[in-house]
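Q: How would the structure tokens look for this protein?
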Amino acid sequence: MSLHSFTAIAGVRRIRSALLAAAVALTATLSSSATFADDRSWATTWMASPQPVWDHDFPLPTKLPASVTDQTFRQAVRVSVGGSRVRLVFSNTYGDRPLRIGGASIGFAGDNGAVAAGSLRKVTFSGKDDIVVPPGAPAISDPLPLTVDAQAKLVVSIYLPDKTPLTTFHWDGRQTAWFGKGNQTQSESFFATQTTDARVFLSKVMVDTPNEGTVVVIGDSITDGNGATVDADTRWTDFLAKRLTPERIAVLNAGISGGRLLRDKMGVNVAARLERDVFAQPKVRAAILLIGINDISWPGTAFAPGQARPTAEEMIAGYEQIIALAQAHNIRLVGATLTPFKGALSGTPLDDYYNPEKDALRQEINRWIRTSGAFDAVVDFDALFRDPADQSRIAPAFDSGDYLHPGDAGNRAMAEAVDLDELLGR
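A: Here is the predicted structure in token form.
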């Protein structure tokens, strides 16, 4: 065979090899693209709406140090729906500087801040242990293989190596959380130096699941769980999540204690957080709106001494904007009436929270919620909670003791009062 023939054969083989390599690469690329394209089944199974810390001029403590250095923060969460993979979302929404997370982990909850044996998993960000989150931004972790059942309780740990101002938090977590020195993210046990029931930076837990949709509950302290037993998961949204578990529908608590319809302070006004807390959640089918009692009652108290009480017209205009925004996003919106509050917070610095004029405004708002037809459906928590002996007061069986927030029995009754067919529009 001539030299020319050998050269020709070698050239053909090189071409074939190149074509085969290209085909393999193309197949891998297409496979990777297909995997990415099919990875569309993420759902938020738990959330805590981010809040900015407030200044010292506000009468409530933040329950947190102003900043920490070289500390781990561990907190527990109860999910709604389960899934085969998990990822976490951290929020630097109200930070004015980059937030460095030096490490993170997740596992199933044990006792007193411990992780259940054998369940601890390292959390990564683009394959790395740490991440720097820009001011105002969120950070989402890599997907982590971890089968999570519906109603499972998880613990999440983050390590904050640098001096870190705690500017983005959730004040009323109703769950014990722990600070400890050094990087304890990879330790099943936890050596705490301080506890709180506030939350820091963690805003969502997501799972990979073929769920049937999501319900978001937007509200104030009644939804956030104030009055419910700490560490017991007895908020009314927890009970609602249990009712919807068989239907594979996630329930997200977007309550902020002190939250208001029209004004900011303990969190921004409702319209300002709808995009983040509701519309950005995957597969939202419906939302429930229970808010407005703080708009009515705060003005003139130590919480808002210089503010005028809004008129019914101003509040109704605010509700109508929320309704219009929900309609524009094709989300069913259920309105909830404002609950009785005669005698609320008496014997405290806020014993002027209630007066008959404020209650008259609440009754006017409730009439509009019931009769206007503006909402897709209505749940009448006012009628549920009224004391038969005094309809401006919460019934003792439902009261937590402050004449404003329901206790555990009241929270259960609220969840049971929601008509699931009306909620989901079926």
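The chain has ten helices and 25 strands.

The first strand starts at residue 42 and ends at 47.

Upvote if useful.
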